[in-house]
Every structure is written in C-alpha cells, then in structure tokens.
Design goal:
Distance between the termini: 25 Å
Number of strands: 0
Strand content: under 5%
Radius of gyration: 18 Å
Shape: globular
Number of domains: 2
Helix content: over 70%
Number of helices: 11
Length: 237
C-alpha cells in the first residue's frame, strides 16, 4: 500500500474521532448547545476530511482511465442497475438475518442518523454526499483494490466487505452491510470507475434517510411489523 493510501486512512481516522476532542472545545468557546457543537464539528470534520482525501488522491484521479472502463452512458445504466443489485443483496441478507439467525430488524446506526437529521437537516449532507465519497475511496479503491492485487475477486470483495461491515459498528447486521460492500466492489471492477459505486452508495443512503424522514416513528414500527424485511431500504451504507 502506498504512502498516499496510508495518509488517506489516517485522515479518515482523524475525521471520525476528532469530535471527541474538538466538539467539547467548540461547546465551551461558542454560545451554542452541546448538540449543536457536535453537529457543527461533525459537518466541518467530514467536509475537511473529504477535501484532504481528494487532494491526496488527486494524482490517481489524473491517471489515464483503463481502455475498457465504462463510458458515460454505461455509467448511468450501471448506477441504476447497481441500486437494484444492492437492494436485492440487502433483501437476501435481511432474510437470512431475520429468518435463520433470529436478528431483529432495524438499525440503531441508521436511526441515530435519522434522529440527528430531523433535528438538524443540514446533517443530511454527510450520509447523502460526504460519507459515500470517502468510504468508497477507502473501502473499494484502497482496501479492496489492494486485496484484489493479491487474490481473486471473491476473496478480495469478501474481506473488504467484512471490513466495511465492521466499521459501521453493528455486528448483528454485518451481513447486510457486507452484502452492500460486495455489490460496490463488483460495480467497481465491472466498470473500472469508482464513480459508479460512489453514486450507488449515495442513492442508497439518500433513499434510506428520505424514506425514514417522511415517516413517523409509529409508521416505521408498523411497517416493520408487517414486513420485517423492509429494512432492506431502511439501512443505508
């Protein structure tokens, strides 16, 4: 793995955990609530982290694309197909979790994002825009890409998908997160365009957040009781 890749991973770690130190400082120095301090710092750190990562990755983005990389028209088709592929993968994973493993539907991680977005709508830019860009660069281009140089696609996709699942902090739903990671890796290899999994990831997260924002907690609970596998569209990546 190149030094640039390690710098990207380090930036991601700092971006994720900097709030532990700086959100309290923001709260102590500005006339804002503790909740606002956390939200403002999270938005700032994720935005700054994304910019730094894109700057670090600039030489790779300038590199010539592969000859057999998907053309603009194909990119659009693969994005649309990728969304459906991800939902099918989530459906299968959710069915296994619920029917075979007895895991309850619903995601605490997704619910936390929804609660924060309800209180501060600007927070929507993180799951809908920033997180997909950063996570696809790290988990698909860097982590999967390095595995793929050393092993076959299945193993490389499986390992990177497991890392992607673990990083979301919900081990009980690792099958669902990993299924999405596997689809994203396939789209990346098939199109040779990191933009494809990025846009599919954006679409999944945006749909997940918008659907839940349009429903009341009572509506979501009622729908989940009727069809527990509805979590296929309620858990973002």
């Amino acid at each position: 793995m190149t030094k640039r890749y390690w710098y990207v991973i380090l930036t991601y770690i700092i971006m994720q955990f900097s709030g532990i130190l700086f959100a309290p400082i923001l709260f102590a120095t500005l006339p804002i609530s503790e909740f606002q301090a956390v939200i403002y710092w999270t938005i700032f750190s994720f935005t700054a982290g994304m910019i730094v990562i894109l700057i670090i990755m600039k030489p790779y983005m300038k590199a010539p694309t592969a000859r057999d990389a998907a053309k603009p028209g194909s990119i659009v088709l693969w994005i649309v197909a990728g969304v459906f592929m991800a939902y099918i993968a989530q459906y299968i994973a959710a069915t296994i979790e619920i029917q075979l493993l007895g895991i309850e539907s619903g995601s605490a991680n997704t619910q936390q994002i929804i609660d924060i977005t309800r209180a501060a709508p600007i927070f929507m830019i993180i799951p809908a825009l920033i997180a997909p860009i950063v996570e696809e660069i790290i988990f698909r281009k860097i982590i999967f890409g390095n595995f793929y140089k050393r092993m076959n696609f299945f193993l490389a996709a499986l390992l990177s998908a497991l890392v992607f699942g673990i990083i979301h902090g919900e081990p009980q739903h690792i099958l669902i997160y990993s299924s999405m990671g596997f689809v994203f890796a396939y789209l990346y290899v098939k199109t040779k365009r990191i933009l494809v999994p990025i846009f599919v990831h954006m679409a999944l997260n945006s749909i997940s957040v918008l659907v839940q924002l349009s429903l009341s907690p009572e509506d979501i609970e009622r729908l989940q009781k009727k069809a527990e596998t509805l979590q296929m569209i309620l858990i973002g990546g």
